Amino acid sequence: MDNDLIPLLQLCDSNFPSGAFSHSFGLETYIQEQVIVDKESFKTAISAFVDKQLVFSDGLACRLSYEILESTRGINELLEIDRLLYVSSLAMETREGNRRIGERMAKLCLELYPSTTLGEYLQFIKNKQGYGHSALVFAFVAHHLQIDKEKILSAYLFASVSSLIQNAVRGVPLGQTDGQKLLVEMQVKIHEAKNRIMMLTKDDLGAVSPGLEIAQMRHERLPVRLFMS
Amino acid sequence: MSYTGVLDLFASKKNEKTIISSCYYEGALKIARPIYLEGDSPSIYLIHVGGGYVNGDSYFTQIQVDDSAHLLVTTQSSTKVYKTPTEPVRHQTKIKLGFGSVLEYIPDPLIAYEDARFIQETEVEIERDSCFFYSDIITPGWAKDGGFFKYEWIRSKLKIYREGQLVLFDHLFLEPDQQMNGIMQMEGYTHIGTFILIHEQVNKKFLDEFYSHLIENFPDVHLGLSALPNQGGILRLLANHSGIIEAIIAEAQTFSRRLLLNKESILWRKY
Fold first, then answer.
1. Nearest CB to B238: which of A86, A210, A220?
2. Could you say which residues from 26 to 45 on chain A have a Cβ atom under 8 Å away from some Cβ of chain B?
3. B contacts of A214 (beta carbons < 8 Å)
4. Which helix (H) or strand (E) holds A213?
5. Each residue of B206-224: pLDDT tens digit?
6. What is the ipTM of this complex?
7. Average pLDDT for consecutive 10-residue bins of chain A (229 residues)?
């Protein structure tokens, strides 16, 4: 039996209550500014989001955290990644959104798969010495369950993309079928992103795109919003 | 290691007035004589002695502002990075602000020409009750074929620590590719501007007023403004020429000086 499969399916299920459901991470700004209007324009946007945000921040942080856990270099290095993720998110809403999702996932995953390392991380978050980010939580769970690094990376990227597509179905709006077709079309992109992440170093962490940052900042001042970021 | 240029500057307060109490420079970096545009605080103009940064150049700048001192720093002209066939150009900057000090660091734009690779690493340490204004403008240089984004890449890392704790990591990595003009990257624009302000009175109310003020004066500019984790803000904008970014940053500085420092605008008269 494939022991990885079912835990991964559960973690990446769009019904997994991480709170990601409420966040567009700047995409809603593009929807309101009529840059994203249909499936094609959304595909361009989410591809750029994967290439930049997910590769250089979330995905790379997940890989680095997993490697720190493997090496037993300790919690301080993990907290450094956690802090870099928090302070490199320049828009307050996105920064707080990521933090809330991270803390919520850490609590939930600790109930599902109790481990000393994740418990320690959550304790640091509670003591305000850590912030919380889903990238680290995925790494903790995967390392605890002995899920292969590249597998968890692909799964994490898939979960992020799938959740954004679900949100686009509501926000753009897109048809349900179009959303699912897009998720299939994104498979190659997710695979490439995972390979790219494997080539990067810690020096690359947090490199984000100016346009996306501005969109995340502008979201804070949109008069009517469907999403919290 | 030996640098192409080094500059080490220390400003401190003496009898109600900030003075440059020590200044060391060598190689391609130097400063002009401090100018007192305001009675009590000097303006320093950073100067690059050569025409610009070339292959393999490395620079180190340190600026320290002692407790209660107020220093203004700008450049005499834009910083130009030319092609770097074998080694990228690297510029490291360390900035320290003592208790209750003020540093306004507003350099001219960086211009990256064809085939340029440039690494800019800036670390800022800020103590309690101090005030820091910082700006940065990145522009693509003119290329033979008239196209933009001919530079190879620019990596800019800015880290700001407040009382020993990292509060901002702004990591811009610009590597022109097919999508450089597109969504989430340059959105069809060519120039990037940033203005950061850190002061204990920077709260939501201040940032809301600041935003309204900017939008009233520059209604059509593509800009975003948000709060930093702790008593600070960041403004980032995209445009198609330096002039508009410089105007907005000047306005941002003037607004912040008036509300946070109770001082009038500063006129640097460079040209």
1. A210
2. 26, 30, 35, 44-45
3. 187, 222-224, 236-238
4. helix A210-219
5. 999 999 999 999 999 999 9
6. 0.95
7. 83 89 95 96 97 97 97 92 98 97 97 96 97 98 96 97 95 96 98 98 94 97 94
Task: Calculate how close chain B gets to A20, using CA atoms only, in Å.
Answer: 20
B238·A86 Cβ contact <8 A: no
Q: Do A52 and B186 touch (CB under 8 A)?
A: no
**Has residue A7 been placed in a domain?**
no
| Domain span including residue A34 | 25-219
Q: Rounded to 5 degrees, what are φ and ψ at A93?
A: -60, -45
Question: In this structure, what CATH number is given to the domain that contains residue A187?
Answer: 1.10.4190.10
**What distances in angstroms separate CA A163 from CA A18, A43, A190, one per listed residue?**
10, 14, 14
Are the C-beta atoms of residues B108 and B80 closer than 8 Å to each other? no
Distance of CA A169 to CAs A21, A173, A183, Å?
A: 12, 5, 12
Helix pair angle (A92-112, A210-219), 10° resolution: 90
What phi, psi does B118 have (nearest 5°)? -140, 130
